[in-house]
From TrEMBL:
Residues 66-249 form the IclR-ED domain. This is Transcriptional regulator, IclR family. Residues 248-272 are annotated as: Disordered. Keywords: DNA-binding, Transcription, Transcription regulation. Transmembrane segments: none annotated. One of its GO terms (molecular function) is DNA binding. Gene3D superfamilies: 3.30.450.40, Winged helix-like DNA-binding domain superfamily/Winged helix DNA-binding domain (1.10.10.10). It holds the Pfam family HTH_IclR. The keyword Lipid biosynthesis does not apply. Residues 4-65 form the HTH iclR-type domain. InterPro entries: GAF-like_dom_sf, HTH_MetabolicPath_Reg, Tscrpt_reg_IclR_C, Tscrpt_reg_IclR_N, WH-like_DNA-bd_sf, WH_DNA-bd_sf. It comes from the Bacteria. The lineage of its organism: Bacteria, Bacillati, Actinomycetota, Actinomycetes, Mycobacteriales. GO terms for biological process: negative regulation of DNA-templated transcription.
Amino acid sequence: MATLQTVQKIGPVLDLFTATRPEWGVSEVAAAIEVPRSSAHALLSSLVDTGLLQCRTRGRYRIGWRVIELGETLRGTVDVRSCAAPVIENLVERYGETSHLAVMERWHVLYVDKVVGTHNITVQGARVGARLDAHCTAVGKVLLAALEEGELRRYLAGRALRRHTPSTITNSGALLDALSVVRSSGCAYDLGEAVSEIHCVAAPVRDDMGSVVAAVSMSVPVTRFVPRKAELTRALTAAARDVTHAIAASTHATPQLTRDHREPARGRSLAS
């Protein structure tokens, strides 16, 4: 049991290390994850031993080089990011709107790639490496909709649905209804739910076995999104299918089709 509790604390410790705060001390970690200083020191020492952290001068800790090695191992399996990059770049070149690639990582949306739009007024979008709430983002809804029922119930039981804007879904029943529509239509919308005045559409990316492994999205100012909603939705869902086929080609397989691959209903709102 003690070993399991230690493993469960590793994720929260690693989550502390961000681009804005890359260095932590033992006392700071202990306070942040609410454990005794001795326990925090033991956790940090274990992570140093595995190479996930490095100990610098004055007992300060930073991310270790082992993370890069693990990243290369991930790239050596199925590199979704490389498969998606040319598709996303083409999407932005054609429509001029900021586009993202995201995955689900420990119940949060993790943004792994982004191409900024080309309009004079454009959405900067989430930075690569950012982790955001899933319930209020289009990519998050796509990824939540792909979870098994038990996993989804566990997600809902483990957190409050935080309100980001007046449009954010904060009721679990309403979110389940929205996710049901996402499954049947093959895409999801964020209509100002994460950031007011920004609308997004997202669609699933699948591996060669048909499992959802990522989501592609387009983020657009509401003034441009509303009149072009159907057009942008068709373009985005087609791009997601192109990434799916690129993944299959990289593994020399034929992508498994599911009912989610149908064209979305035109003009239908999925977020409310």
